[in-house]
């Protein structure tokens, strides 16, 4: 999708959203089958990861995330595009997805400035990573080991979608890894053993770490929300925690 195709409004008519153009990869059998499994097998919490990816894909005039469209899938791109179109036509004060775009930019800038305070080198843990593609789009991560924590089936499908996208022969859809390393950690953050799983995957508690909890929407009793923070606090090195940006 080019900037002109999605999100970028034509100068002569800012009330009309350009027609949605799907990435070619979404039309391939492999990627279609992967997205069908999302529709059939994931619950609404896991599917929310595709909604946020759709936001980044359709606000691509402010966020450069070339993988977001493939990760989001047709259903969520169409649904958000329709909401944006209606918002434009009704002259709504807030066009759908804008808050998500602002939030992502806020996290990107916080991540970069915190990395700079660590001389560009730290572990970065994305709790409830969903369809986040920071490891592929942020050059500031070039000296960092990135860990993505999420449910096993989400991480499996995400890896297959990224394999299809990064191996694509279409130059526009090719992306390469920016982070020094990327490790996916399949875990339920509500369970007591998620921190142990993270360590078994190579995470080192004694190293400088930036934790990102961007819109992870915990679906658990509120008193268990604190558990991830307790595990983070118990890490020996002072860690930087970045949680949901204010709406
Ligand atoms: C709204 S999405 C946000 C994804 C990503 N952080 C972003 O901003 O695009 C919420 C994510 O948190 C994950 N999540 C929520 N609760 C979780 C849990 N208990 N264990 C692991 N992942 C969880 C979901 O699977 C989903 O990918």
UniProtKB/TrEMBL annotation:
Pfam families: LCM. This is S-adenosyl-L-methionine-dependent methyltransferase. GO terms for biological process: methylation. The keyword Disulfide bond does not apply. The lineage of its organism: Eukaryota, Viridiplantae, Streptophyta, Embryophyta, Tracheophyta. The keyword Amino-acid biosynthesis does not apply. InterPro entries: Ppm1/Ppm2/Tcmp (IPR007213), SAM-dependent_MTases_sf (IPR029063), SAM_mthyl_Trfase_ML2640-like (IPR011610). It comes from the Eukaryota. GO terms for molecular function: methyltransferase activity. Keywords: Methyltransferase, Transferase. Belongs to the UPF0677 family.
